[in-house]
Amino acid sequence: MPTFVDPNKCDGCGKCVDICPSDIMHLSNSVFSGRKAYNIEPNYCWECYSCVKECPQHAIDMRGYADFAPLNHKLTVLRDKERNVIMWKIRYRDGTKMQFAFPIRSTPWGSIKPPQEYSQPTNDEMKSQYLSHEPEYLMSGGGLPVPQGGTSKS
Amino acid sequence: MAGCGAAYEARYWGRGLKIVVVEKADIERSGAVAMGLSAINCYMGMRWNENTPEDFVRYTRNDLMGLVREDLVYDIARHVDSTVHLFEEWGLPIIKDPTTGRYKREGRWQILIHGESYKPIVAEAARKAASEVYNRIMVTHLLTDASNPNRIAGAAGFSVRDGTFYVFRAKAVIVAAGGATHIFRPRSVGEGAGRTWYAPWSTGSAYGLLIQVGAEMTQMENKLVVTRFKDGYGPVGAWFLALKAVATNAYGEDYELKYREEQRALYGDYVDAKPFPTCLRNDAMLREIKAGRSPIFIHTERVLDTKEKEELGHEDFLDMTMSQTIVWASQNIDPKKRPSELQPSEPYIMGSHATCSGAWASGPSDISPTEYFWGYNRMTTVEGLFGAGDTIGGSAHKFSSGSFTEGRLAAKAAVMYIMDHADTPTVAEGTVEAVREDVFRPFETYRRGKSLITRGTVSPSFIYPDQGVVRLEKIMDEYAGGWGSFYTTNEVLLNRGLELLGMLKEDMAHVAAENLHQLQRAWELYHRVWTAEAVIRHTLFRKETRWPGYCYRSDYPKLDNAQWHCFVNSRYDQKTGEWSVFTRPYVQLITG
Question: In this structure, is residue B108 part of a structural domain?
């Protein structure tokens, strides 16, 4: 289901161009529609919805791949980074409707503590097999495992 | 994932270092985890005594029919829990069991997450750690030291946005690029060609970059065929493991264990492994399909008896493969009312999933036997060149959390490498110029050839990248075991495939690009062709069928532990243009 863009909503901001992992959302200078986004290569569209989620005008929608998706379906999304929720609306070809909402993050955006703000690792830690925040973040009650003999738990 | 892990960890240990991340797209949504994930498939749960790393080695070893780098797998397993706990602290919502308070298990190794924003969350960590993040720069070449061709000196590439040529000089390089799609003909071929199971922007750069500088590769014959929801390639893990759905043939019969004795005669006691190895599941399904008992169904309608389960089933797709939701919506499939079809995919080459193709790398000093250790964890056979995620071979079942963990391992080792090597490698000026010419040659090819035709895409003097891709896909499908041949090949087919691939390689000098987007596609094609050559050469060399269900050698239909319980490795010599393919011993570290 590659993307398509509503010319009435698209204002050519280019956010979809910036986010597309496949480099297929580009801006066109068409005489007909002006500087608007479109999918230049639907056969490299993974339907990842990155552009759909990013578009501030909600101008981008998805139509299932021509190879196997009959028409008249809809899957729309609203990703809310303030409330950290994603909301999906599905409409089946036969009219069935479904709605789902899921959390996307449990902390505010931008809140990750940079690694350089932790205290400098010691020389012993440098030379050890520990990665950052180990062994505390392993939470295994011991140090770092090394291979032991023994039988399988199953 | 691996790249973000590497950036974070490199900064933790290398506070004063210049750490540069270079990404073909934008790290916010790049790679295989772009749309999100509904589960983390590699988590031990050591804090609750749920599993040990030894158990994980035994599990992956069985799943790979006896062939994994046990040191690399153990190393991932012992560290991955700290990665997952870090993710939770950063804000990845991990689903908990309300009665026990533990992470809710999807399966023995897997936990469920609300993972739509998985990539943006880890990308935030990487941006905070790195000195600079260059997005929209495609790395086309690795660069080696002028005085030592087996030592890394940096990388080169171009801006997909404005065509600037970039040279990154570095004492250590970690490649965390993608494995390969569109090497084999996909099942959907129109617009649907975009719907490969693994990301279409994973174009084998992990292999193409490394092979050319002479890094030793391993298990490139270990192609992956995944059984997923048909066409949309929706994930099956939550359905099989958490919701306990079953698969049957067209007539409602359970087929999975039907062929155990035939399989035992060919593949030995691996048929008794619990859980049943993934490739053997595929093999059973393929036998059923060949017998004419398609479609293969997954009975979602039998397991969605509560609202919670229905939500879990839908979230499984919406968090990570919205295309499958669209298949349901467009075809009026309500999973509560009717089953869905399953289908085995076209083959992929990757290092982080149920298969482990990639670079041959050193393991950690405290675990690896001498055969598998040469100084720095996750360093390839090229000095200073490290890999993580799909780049590294032999290290199966990493998935997202394991790949991020491998990035952390490679980064710490790379920091140690930098500290141990005071001298700085240099790139010869002549090399930089030669690479620049190489990078932009497709523009030149187009400029010279375009006036031979009025307009259109049919030129006698050049091919466009897409034309190269479809030719490659047809060669690999027909000669190297694509879905068209039920994943079957033999020596005669493989040699013919190598002959045709040889001519495609020659035609790579005549790939045309009209613009920067096409130039990116051209370089993706180049990396794919390198990957494909490694795949054919490795498949030729391994004279047995080690992973039925992924690849069959019809001329050597049995698993042969007497001769082939070893790794098949290769090395390309840039000076002579010759490949050498050879074996390396398998060393067992964990009993059982």
Answer: no
